[in-house]
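Moderator note: this is an archived Q&A kept for reference. The question asked for a predicted structure of one protein chain; the sequence and the answer are reproduced below.
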Amino acid sequence: MEHTEQSPIVIDDTTLRDGEQTAGVVFSRREKITIARMLDDIGVGELECGIPAMGKEEQETLKTLVDLGLKARLISWNRALLSDIQASLDCGMTAVDISLSVSDIHMTHKLKKSRDWVKEQLKTALGFAKQHGLYVSVGGEDSSRADMGFLLELLQIAEREGADRFRFCDTLGILDPFTTFEKVLALRQASSLEIEVHTHNDLGMATANSIAGIRAGARYVNTTVNGLGERAGNAALEEVVMALKYATGIDPAIATERFVELSQFVARASKRPVPPWKAVVGARVFSHESGLHADGVFKNPQNYEGFDPAEVGLHRHLVLGKHSGTHGLKQRLADLDIDASGIDIDHLLVRVRHLAGRKKRALNDRELQALCRAA
């Protein structure tokens, strides 16, 4: 399903809510303010910023975020309880996510309630929220395991009672992109209500499932910086945005050149370091060692780079190791201002490869300089 310029994709980033639900992660109020401002500055359209029902401290933080006057819409997470929604109102929130369990396994073993009870809960909570002028996303917790007939029934109730959109949640991260596409498409075809996709990464498919949901017609997508979140995390903001741009041709108008800055701040605040090989923002994802690849990049970076590293705030790295070739070695010598005129490059390359194989890693500059002195 195509998205027009009049219907752009909206990133609803939930780093401050679902990201902070990562086991052991706590953001200070100052850190939340900084993250919110950074997300707002780069053009993220919505921030799911917390859970008022958690108590006074969380409520004070939400009030502080509201008072920042950000361009992004702030949205809070709530159970389908009037007390939760009232707490959001008291914080000055104008938009809420009302979450309710929609799968039979949750209804039976978590809520111990019937489908009829869930439907009435939705009507009551949604009615209260709309009476108070709130923008409402109805969140279907565990949508991916829900009976499709019941999910469509809830969707129709949500539309009839005035909801603004419906959140399809792959709460346990169990779907593949093909099934995600089919389920989201079924929701889009059954209602004029906007669809939001919320995916988890338990099987490593959160980003792919988010893109599949968008392909099926979802307009809203949930992300977190660095893919923080429960268990294996959520769809990573940086991955979803770059996948939209380069895999689907949809530009969500995000200032991607600040991704690494944002990623590193959240990594420090969450005490969850970003692996060097992390997609899009890992410090070494634009490293080249293979002689064939290094030569190709020298001739034209597009030979082996899908996008310019500067687009996300990174730099290209040439690594000398077991698989390096003469072009990469010559370039590294030039970068270090080493005069290679008197050096047998082929012999030096043999020694570089041997030492890298023995150390089981790439060589550092000091080691290369020592080899050159001994050449």
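Archived answer notes: The longest strand covers residues 73-79.
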